[in-house]
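Problem 12. The chain below contains 208 residues. Write out its predicted structure in token notation.
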Amino acid sequence: MALFRAYHRTRAHYRERRAALYRPGIEAALMEEPADAVCAILRPRRWGDADIVQEVMVEAMRHLEGGAFETLRQAALRLGLSERALRDLRARDRHRRGRALDRLGVLRPAEAVPAILSVLDEQPLELKLVALRALAALGDHTVLPRLVREADALPPPLLPRLISLLLEFDAPGRRAAVDLINRHPRAFPPSAVRDILRHLSVDFGTAR
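Solution.
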């Protein structure tokens, strides 16, 4: 056990040292440096660094928007990180698939929506929730009917979480949320429905 802990400490320290080499790329994006310059800083320099670069970029992008976010998104495309996440959707290891789903929701490549939908039915419950969250982050309104249908396979206690994902789609998501309540009325006690509809600014009678 002591050897195991020592290995993981050593590995964590190594990855942190490698990550520090690439964080200036994030700073360059924040300073509005051109995408080519950002990409040059973030390009992996050693075998095994690609995963570290992806972690650094994804963690930063979770907290960014606007020009800096778009610069890093374009860098991820040029460096093949989005393509790597798409490939990992088919990985045998479920933890690897989960990380890929999460990263696609942040990196937002154009192929992400059809790729996630193509593997959605194969995922265990915990990964299905990660996939639904990634689809919500991608913001493509065309997935709303599928998200509502997915409620049929979810345990009722998880349906309020799905409602929160639908609300990320603004007006179309609000309509989908009302549809979900109509399809699964027993999962939403009247008090919960009133709170949800008050939040949606929808008359209580329209959902019953």
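Discussion. The chain is about 70% helix and 0% strand. Students who got a different answer should revisit the alignment rule from Section 12.3.
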